[in-house]
Amino acid sequence: MINEILIDLHTESEVLDALVAPLDDWSVPTPAPGWTIAHQISHLHWTDRIAGLAARDPEAFAEELERATPDMVDEGAREPVTLEQWRAGRNELADALRAVPEGRKVPWFGPPMSPASMATARLMETWAHGQDVADALGVTREPTNRLKHVAHIAVRAFGYAFMVNGLPVPEVPVRVELLGPEGDLWTWGPADAEDRITGPALDFCLLATRRRHRDDLAVTAVGDHAEAWLPIAQAFAGPPGPGREKGQP
């Protein structure tokens, strides 16, 4: 399983690589306030490096965690990085995740994760920050079945989304039905659940990564709990950001 996810992660990274490699100037602003294309790539590289450290050397990661500050993510995005360094860091992370002994989890800033979950999280973030870069360049990316990884994280984070917003976690299940890019239906939750989320997989992923405003997407909710979830859905850890404004690409 880990190898299949790492192949998808590599492919997703190559899509973003193809966007930034021809550019002479990475100072183009992206929709993320204060972040240029350079910041997006630096952030991905920094997170890959820290994740690789966690996989290779949990004790060294624990020391890094002790030095963590509230501004560390922004600071990581400000570290200069070259295209070659980012590429090398991606490969090093993949090697580190493959080498994690079976049954051992990778420590992280939140709960420890399996190597497969860590790879999935890196794919989600690569896709999300790739969307920022694509928007900055006015490029439309073709959606692929790799979106299922992003959607899966968002569904798994249902309870977390409520907790991080200081809201009680609903005790009823929510059915999620998403139409994949190739026309197949992706589902989570019991088929007889009264609360339901439906829509294109791409739209749900854009919503859960806060790359589009809900009003600009064809995602619908039925039931009070599903309706309460959509505005706060997130596929990432940590406090939610402001997200995009209505009509903002």
TrEMBL record:
InterPro entries: CHP03084 (IPR017518), DinB/YfiT-like (IPR034660), Maleyloyr_isom (IPR017517), MDMPI_metal-binding (IPR024344), tRNA_wybutosine-synth (IPR013917). It comes from the Bacteria. Residues 172-221 form the tRNA wybutosine-synthesis domain. Residues 10-134 form the Mycothiol-dependent maleylpyruvate isomerase metal-binding domain. It holds the Pfam family MDMPI_N. This is TIGR03084 family metal-binding protein. It comes from Saccharothrix hoggarensis.
